[in-house]
């Protein structure tokens, strides 16, 4: 009987400790990371993933590019944007995350076929990919600041757009395992062009926010031209980033 009481007290103490620990972790995570906002980027389904990958590889005739707005049922006010599973134009973090992991593993396979594989290859390539994404994010945010572009765009949006390039890189690496060099080069240039075009259209709402209001119309022509040039520069830099990832 004494053992049963002791065991029951131990179990109760364990549950209390686990609840306290979970509450502490959740409190500190929410303190530094907006979990509900992060969860939004992983609301995907199989249909969205398949259609989004197809869009990333064949973006030329896609219409429209505008994102779907989520409105309040009470007053109809804008509450944000619809999640990825309800809007193919919505950025997500599921595809970039899976693509990054696939890219790192695939570079290991490529190194193995060339008899150059060692465990450090995976770590080096993962670090390189991460640093390139951070560099691109810093460049875009810096450009937005210098051009006085409204900082309403979430950093997670830009992180998602930066991560989509791994789809084209993966396709190029896979072709490199099966096809001659000239086919690999052609595939590389095609995927760079596709990713650049995708960003050119998708990032337009970042460079020209609130296109349905008069705020955009009142942008001076000189500043408007600078923003357009910045947008094309971001798209053009995909050649450099994707080349470094493949190399």
Automatic annotation (TrEMBL):
Compartment(s) of residence: Endoplasmic reticulum membrane; Golgi apparatus membrane
Bilayer topology term: Multi-pass membrane protein
Coiled-coil positions: none
BP GO terms, sorted: endoplasmic reticulum to Golgi vesicle-mediated transport; protein transport
Gene Ontology cellular-component annotations: COPII-coated ER to Golgi transport vesicle; endoplasmic reticulum membrane; endoplasmic reticulum-Golgi intermediate compartment; Golgi membrane
Pfam families per record: YIF1 (PF03878)
InterPro entries with a match to the protein in the record: Yif1_fam (IPR005578)
Record field: transmembrane: 93-110, 130-151, 163-182, 188-207, 228-246
Keyword annotations: Endoplasmic reticulum, Golgi apparatus, Membrane, Protein transport, Transmembrane, Transmembrane helix, Transport
Membership in a protein family: Belongs to the YIF1 family.
Function: Has a role in transport between endoplasmic reticulum and Golgi.
UniProt protein name: Protein YIF1
